[in-house]
Write a structure and sequence with these properties.
CATH superfamily of the largest domain: nicotinate phosphoribosyltransferase
CATH class of the largest domain: Alpha Beta
GO molecular function: nicotinamide phosphoribosyltransferase activity; nicotinate phosphoribosyltransferase activity
CATH architecture of the largest domain: Alpha-Beta Barrel
Enzyme class: ligase
Radius of gyration: 27 Å
Keywords: Glycosyltransferase, Ligase, Phosphoprotein, Pyridine nucleotide biosynthesis, Transferase
Largest sheet: 7 strands, antiparallel
Strand content: 15-25%
InterPro entries: Aldolase_TIM, N/Namide_PRibTrfase, NAPRTase_C, NAPRTase_N, Nic_PRibTrfase-Fam, Nic_PRibTrfase_pncB, Nicotinate_pribotase-like_C
Number of domains: 2
Helix content: 25-40%
Protein name: Nicotinate phosphoribosyltransferase
Distance between the termini: 63 Å
Bound molecules: adenosine-5'-triphosphate, 1-O-pyrophosphono-5-O-phosphono-alpha-D-ribofuranose, nicotinic acid
Strand order of the largest sheet: 13-12-1-5-3-19-20
Structural class: alpha/beta
Shape: globular
Amino acid sequence: MEYLYPDDSLILHTDAYELTMMQTYWKQGIGDRKAVFEAFFRKMPFKNGYAVFAGLSRIIEYLKNLRFTATDIEYLRSTGMFDPAFLDYLADFKFQGTLRSVVEGELVFNHEPILQVEGNLLETSLVETALLNVINFQIMIATKASRVKSVVGDQLLMEFGTRRAQEFDAALWGTRAAYIGGFDATSNVRAGKLFGIPISGTHAHALVQTYRDEYTAFKAYAQTHHDCVFLVDTFDTLKSGVPTAIRVAKEFGDRINFQGVRIDSGDMAYLSKQVRKMLDEAGFPEAKIFASNDLDEKTIQNLKMQGAKIDAWGVGTKLITSYDQPTLGAVYKLVSVENDQGEMVDTMKLSNNVTKVSTPGKHQVWRITDRADGKSEGDYVTLADEDPRQLDSLYMFDPQFTFLHKTVKDFVARPLLQDIFVDGELVYDEPSLDEIKHSHQERLNRLWDEYKRDLNPEVYPVDLSQKCYDNKMALIAQIHDYVQALGEEQDD
Ligand SMILES: Nc1ncnc2c1ncn2[C@@H]1O[C@H](COP(=O)(O)OP(=O)(O)OP(=O)(O)O)[C@@H](O)[C@H]1O
Ligand SMILES: O=P(O)(O)OC[C@H]1O[C@H](OP(=O)(O)OP(=O)(O)O)[C@H](O)[C@@H]1O
Ligand SMILES: O=C(O)c1cccnc1
């Protein structure tokens, strides 16, 4: 297949309505007006007690290169939807806005801003689709990975999902997100090259089928590799696979590093116990049992409950496709916009559905922790000009059930939204992937166990400052008055 144009750029990775709205703003002469958008999600993924932020690295790469190419403009012209003068403007477009974001590996919760884009109406509109596209996927995978990691503990956890992923990008960036969430290695070699994620793996059934019998196949592998994990379930795990793996391991002795065997079908609790006995009796107590086959955190936990003797886990489909929840549902909402008089006015989307009401104003999110033990007290969403670090005590209340409140003293408040781009300039020094991964585990250590259990976790508090809450209530009242007045006008 040949593409219609010889080159491709991500700037057209946007919904057509972003461009048509941009044309409206531009032609109406308000394109230069300032706007602030914030992204957040409404429901915790997998009903987990926390979510793991991922996707910033890709967003940085996207924003750095955000230019319309000659063929982008040519294509837009061919649609007949855009004014030639507007297209001339686009030809010189460059993202000159400010991006604030939570950093990768950080824990995030529903109803708090995790990305904030400040700039003119045009650039802040254009990037919505791509930004949401990235975080809606990567946060899901990083969170799922973190859940799997929480049941696997210190055992080896390998990502095997590429073949089942929703195409190339999802496999590659999903692997990276999984690594952030706690996976140790991947089978995806490209992810190894691009991100430095350790690659690892065993071999497929095809190897055994090619040589037609396990003995010849395992021997062939042992002759060509030092580290060997033999896949033992092609014919019969206990009767042929494991005895043959042991035979080859004995024959090759120190010439190979017999790491163990992989089981990929059957009752893995029963089989792993039998396999463990056989390996131990054969003098291979160090050999590990690898398992794969539609695993996820629930099956792994269940296998552990059954006393399965599995030492290393390969997880593919259910991780990389975010099998039990297809999207995070993150949204991108306008929270403040410049009016005719050049003033910034807060704005919100009011909905009949209470959970869909957004919080107006430009915000900061503060992670409040106890100064003594570093443990989480909750998150505190303020207007951007507030700084709770100046306070001796913090009154925190639930914005929905305001009678639920507490006063926190001796706390540390850490701002979560950090400057990434300021006026188009990248000001953020990205940590290495291993630092990000490590920071995720550190952050989890500060979270109380009650929020970390995988079933019915406690709801982590995300509270609004009084000023932020009052601002929201005032705007709701203002919108109600406006709607009522309009209704009365129509009745007259
Ligand atoms: N002891 C166990 N307890 C709970 N779940 C298990 C156990 N053993 C395997 N499973 C899981 O059960 C699911 C189905 O396993 P099953 O044995 O039916 O598949 P299979 O043997 O791979 O069959 P197929 O040959 O069709 O692939 C998999 O997700 C697997 O991880
Ligand atoms: O089950 P998942 O969590 O998705 O893990 C990846 C799966 O991919 C492989 O199977 P496949 O049948 O594709 O190839 P194989 O011949 O190597 O088993 C592997 O054996 C796993 O079962
Ligand atoms: O290396 C493996 O064992 C592997 C790799 C990808 C998918 N399934 C298994």
